[in-house]
Design goal:
Elements: H1 2-23, E1 28-30, H2 41-49, E2 58-63, H3 67-82, E3 86-88, H4 96-104, H5 106-109, E4 111-112, H6 120-133, E5 149-150, E6 160-161, E7 164-167, E8 171-178, H7 185-199, E9 205-208, H8 211-244, H9 247-271, E10 274-276, H10 277-300, H11 311-327, H12 333-360, H13 379-393, H14 411-423, E11 429-436, H15 439-452, H16 466-477, H17 481-495, H18 508-511, H19 520-525, E12 531-533, E13 536-544, E14 557-559, H20 562-572, H21 574-595, H22 600-618, H23 625-644, H24 655-669, H25 679-700
Parallel strand pairs: 1-10
Antiparallel strand pairs: 2-8, 2-9, 3-8, 4-5, 6-7, 7-8, 11-13, 11-14, 12-13
Helix pairs in contact: 1-9, 1-12, 6-17, 7-8, 8-10, 8-24, 9-10, 9-12, 10-12, 10-24, 11-12, 11-21, 11-23, 13-22, 21-23, 22-23, 22-25, 23-25, 24-25
């Protein structure tokens, strides 16, 4: 019976480990922060935009305009196209379908000069003089000799050198699109590897694709999280060996923490289709809080002999669990995953450390290090100053809503992106998603955007909708060009034009072409980006960043901006976060009042001082949702320590030693996150270091009350 009891924890670990080994592949771990934002219009717009070729182009430029550079870009194009994974978008070969459409609808695609006072004689005389006096060839549009129609302004000029697309003054440019429309990290990795293997060893070449962020950032985040988990695990192992000094207890402790983490991971994998990689880093750290329960029971001697139920540890667990439970209701998938993971992990660890470990029985190593250091501290003054700092700093807090500051800052890719955007004149522009119930309406909306924003580029505004067609037809009829055709021919002959030169001027086919309904396939064959999703049609436009405030005036347009999307997501759940924060704070102080009434000032300091220091740090700027979330977690940690220190016998027993080692343990779990290059994890690590440092100072000042 005793052997079975002693092996029970290891057996439980073996069962959970087996389940994890069998089902781990069914849990999809994602490094994409955007996928863990709340569902909404902005997030949906991002997902739709990712299907456009424009959002995942591969740009390659060779430096210089010599023969070697031209040959180099052509060889690269041939090699990449041979893979049949990419399609060339920078070909200067005209699109036959687009040419035919343009030719048939020339008078409807150009700008119209409605001035009917044009002198036929003077206009034709001017054309004749240009043709005869200019030593170079002068092109004359014989279909529009009076110049009623003029080409639309080309927003992004096309630069061609030596029969190839060029990138400003840098060199030749190649633009490729990805044929695979699955938008998976696997497909992006395939393209990334293909491009970089092809460019390997090639000099004076620059390359960029938005999809490279997914590949490089994902790998960097995975490497970063793996490094942090390994570093944290090593530090914790060293710490546990030093503190516990009982090999069998150490093995069981590691087995308990691993069991809780693995089972929590599997369970949240069943609840969500994607699990954030940040949950793994956080999950490894959350075990540092769970081990508090073991430290207290171990130092109190609960594992050597039967003692009364430790209410301080129970209240500590209850407070932490309750805090995570409050925030688990916030409609933010990333926060929900972290909270649910923490709740499951803490509960499993608590049950094992508190109920299973006393049954197994572990002897306390003698002697073990105790924490005796003590300095006098004015707790009431600290509490009042902390409270004052909190009250004064809150009104001046500014939340950083730029989601990119939570992600890995890929400086090298950002440099390449800026280079290409500057060269193509796209720097300072943001994409808009345009939505409509039909293609005709989509074209109309694109033209509205093109006319409403001075520097906008809306590709689909090249075409016209049915309403515009009817309007242009009436405008052309009001010019009475049919009545002027005979006069044009007569005046032209008198001026010296050959007879019949303007026979085709203002012919019926150009004046009154039949309206062509454009289909989705036709637009795609012409090279335009249109997406059909759930019965609605979508395309995109580019507008200046300075015009972003005007976008809200158009119900059919949504800005594709990560910062704005994150801000909208936060705005959507702002009342939930506020309510959760109020409830969490109320819950914390309720527990302090209920459990620590006799030592309220002392215990409250473990919450107030860390909170005050973190909020003062926030005044320096860059305070993100990761800082806020970790602040609440540290408040929960703080109240645990406040409850533990409320014991009148805390000098006589192992409370202070347990808290000291728990603080060091917390740093090993959460504090190491400060070494992360990922914004969210670094923020959590920074907050953790400040909080643990403050608690350590308070622990040094504990004296008999």
């Amino acid at each position: 019976m005793k052997l079975g009891t002693k092996s029970l924890n290891i057996l439980l670990f073996a069962i959970v480990g087996t389940l994890f080994f069998v089902y781990q592949n069914s849990v999809h771990v994602s490094t994409n922060l955007l996928s863990f934002l709340p569902e909404g219009k902005s997030k949906e717009a991002f997902e739709i935009y990712s299907h456009f070729k424009n959002s995942k182009e591969v740009l390659i430029a060779t430096e210089g305009f010599d023969k070697e550079s031209l040959a180099k870009i052509k060889i690269l194009e041939e090699k990449l196209l041979a893979s049949e994974l990419l399609k060339l978008e920078s070909s200067i070969t005209p699109n036959a379908k687009l040419i035919e459409y343009t030719k048939n609808n020339a008078f409807y695609l150009k700008n119209l000069n409605k001035d009917d006072s044009i002198s036929i004689h003077e206009t034709l005389k001017s054309l004749y003089e240009k043709m005869t006096n200019n030593p170079y060839y002068t092109a004359i549009d014989a279909s529009d000799p009076l110049g009623y129609f003029s080409p639309k302004e080309q927003k992004i000029p096309i630069n061609i050198r030596d029969g190839h697309l060029a990138l400003g003054d840098f060199g030749y440019l190649c633009v490729l699109s990805i044929k695979d429309t699955s938008n998976t990290i696997e497909s992006y990795e395939t393209i990334y590897n293909l491009v970089h293997q092809t460019l390997n060893g090639v000099q004076n070449v620059r390359v960029f694709s938005p999809t490279f962020y997914f590949v490089e950032n994902a790998q960097k985040i995975q490497d970063d999280v793996t490094f942090l988990i390994v570093l944290s695990t090593i530090l914790l192992l060293v710490l546990y060996i030093f503190i516990i000094k009982n090999l069998y207890l150490l093995i069981n402790t590691i087995a308990t923490l691993a069991t809780s983490a693995l089972l929590s991971f599997l369970l949240i994998g069943m609840m969500w289709s994607e699990v954030s990689v940040f949950v793994l880093a956080f999950g490894n750290a959350i075990g540092t809080l769970a081990i508090d329960y073991m430290f207290h029971y171990y130092f109190y001697g609960h594992y050597e002999s039967k003692k009364k139920f430790n209410t301080s540890v129970f209240y500590g667990f209850l407070t932490t669990f309750g805090g995570f439970l409050i925030f688990a209701w916030v409609d933010f998938p990333l926060i929900q995953q972290v909270c649910v993971f923490a709740m499951i992990s803490l509960m499993l660890s608590y049950l094992q450390f508190v109920f299973l470990f006393p049954l197994i029985g572990f002897k306390k190593a003698q002697p073990y290090t105790k924490f005796h250091f003590s300095i006098p501290l004015p707790y009431r003054a600290i509490a009042l100053l902390s409270l004052l700092a909190i009250v004064l700093s809150v009104p001046f807090l500014q939340l950083d809503t730029n989601i990119k500051n939570l992600d890995y800052q890929n400086v090298s890719l950002q440099k390449e992106e800026k280079f290409f955007k500057n060269a193509i004149k796209k720097e300072g522009f943001m994409p808009l998603l345009i939505e409509a119930n039909s293609i005709d309406e989509l074209i109309a909306h694109s033209n509205v955007i093109q006319k409403s924003f001075k520097n906008a580029t809306a590709p689909l505004s090249y075409f016209f909708d049915k309403a515009f067609y009817e309007q242009r037809k009436q405008e052309i009829e009001s010019l009475h060009v049919n009545e002027k055709k005979a006069q044009i021919e007569d005046e032209a002959t008198k001026l010296g034009f050959r007879e019949g030169f303007f026979n085709n001027a203002y012919n019926e086919a150009l004046l009154h072409p039949s309206y062509q309904e454009l289909s989705l396939d036709t637009l795609r064959e012409m090279g335009f980006d249109v997406v059909l999703r759930e019965g609605k049609y979508y395309t995109y436009a580019l507008v200046k960043n300075s015009d972003r405030n005007l976008v809200s005036n158009f119900t059919f347009a949504s800005s594709i901006d990560a910062k704005e999307m994150f801000f909208n997501a936060l705005e959507k759940i702002a009342h939930q976060l506020l309510l959760g924060g109020v409830l969490a704070i109320a819950f914390i102080f309720f527990m302090l009042w209920m459990v620590c009434r006799k030592t309220l000032t002392l215990s409250a300091n473990y919450v107030l001082l860390p909170t005050a220091l973190i909020l003062l740090l926030a005044l320096t700027g860059g305070f993100t949702i990761a800082h806020i979330f970790m602040l609440f977690i540290m408040m929960l940690f703080g109240i645990d320590y406040g409850i533990y220190m409320s014991s009148e016998d805390s000098f006589k027993d192992g409370t202070r030693s347990a808290i000291f080692f728990s603080i060091i343990d917390t740093f090993a779990g959460f504090g190491v996150l400060i070494f992360s290059d990922i914004g969210a994890l670094h923020a959590m690590g920074l907050v953790s270091c400040i909080a643990t440092g403050a608690i350590l100072v308070l622990l040094m000042g504990r004296k008999p009350q």
